[in-house]
Amino acid sequence: MMVQTLKLALLGSVILNASVALGAVASYNVPTRQAEGLRLIKTSDDDAGTWVTEEEKFEKFISQHVGFVDITDTMALETLRVDRLTSDVKRQTVQAFPSTASHQTEANALIAKLVQSNLSTWLNAMANIYNRYYRGSYAATSATWMYDTVVSVASTNSKITVKKFTHSYNQPSVIAAIPGTSDDVVIVSAHYDSIGSTTSGKAPGADDNASGIVVILEALRVLAAAKYAPTNTLEFHFYSGEEGGCLGSRDIMQSYAKNGVNVLAVMNQDMTGYSPNNVIAVYTDYVDSSLTAFIQKLVPIYTSLPLSTDKCGYGCSDHASARDAGFPAAYVCDENMKDSSPYIHSASDTVSTVSFPHVLQHAKLTVGFLVEASYF
After folding, report:
1. Exposed e or buried b per residue across 158-170, where buried means at least 16 C-beta atoms within 10 angstroms of its C-beta
2. Which residue of 58, 127, 299, 327 is 20 to 30 Å from 49, comparing CA positions?
3. Is 185 domain-assigned?
4. Domain containing 35: what range?
5. Is residue 93 situated within a structural domain?
6. 153 and 15, same structural domain?
7. Looking at 21-25, 103-107, 357-361, which range is the least confident one?
8. Which of 62, 86, 110 is the last residue of a domain?
9. Contact, 291 vs 329, CB < 8 A?
10. Residues of the signal sequence (predicted)?
11. What string of DSSP letters covers 18-46?
């Protein structure tokens, strides 16, 4: 086992420890605030949070491109994060990821089966939904498309399970799992919701983040068709509500932490199709440094593109939720911050801005990662 998890006993109440560090979580009076239609927003690890309305969340954070997470429904995850930092006795993950790729023959045989036209077909279908905002009129429509598509893609292997993970809003996340001989879990993820210049405006979300979704869909299709039998269980997470503050992924990671799911690694992708520098960007902040270093080594092995690195700040995508739960997480994107798509969060984030050959390179990296991670 290249990754070993050491679980130390939790003494006392996690909630109590974290409450002290947070300045008394109970004082948030979450049920009352929720009943008033307010949400608790954080813009840094040290931020105790600010209560805002849904409208203020969009106006002050989303439209201003401020990194944030919404912890209203996931206070247990927040208390777990703080407890890991403040408690002398905590759940601790000890990692020793491989020094390089060691399953290239197996991975390359699967990579050869990737089909670029599938990426285009699915991405066009997603972009044709008026918007995929998690609280919008098309939230349920986009969720139905997501679930039905995952079920269809996974149907070539009867061992694969596909389930909806419901949230407090009307847009469930979707999880597909290829069972391994081990209960240890490796996750690849992307979010399928989108947001425009207003909450009800047109939001094709082609790069952000239909491009990430189609990458893991095509990886799932290839592994399903090949009846791939991993050692570690491989999960494909299609999150909702990312644009609202990583809502879907936080719900899921809170559940996994509560239920003792042993997550070995999470590779999240958010935007894979707009890259003027034609690079694979692997971000280095708010991630697990060891897992990130391993993925950086995979880029020149499984893709034909150069590696770029950058930092994206607090709460920039769903890997933040895995990190808060104490799981090793990494973030892969199509470009550095300075040269990233200027069209996201608008009606101009269209299919015409997406390079499908570039998206295919991300799919190659994803399959390579999944095969390598199967043996962690």
Report:
1. eebebeebebebe
2. 327
3. yes
4. 3-86
5. no
6. no
7. 21-25
8. 86
9. yes
10. 1-23
11. HHHHHT-GGGG-HHHHHHTTEEEEESSTT
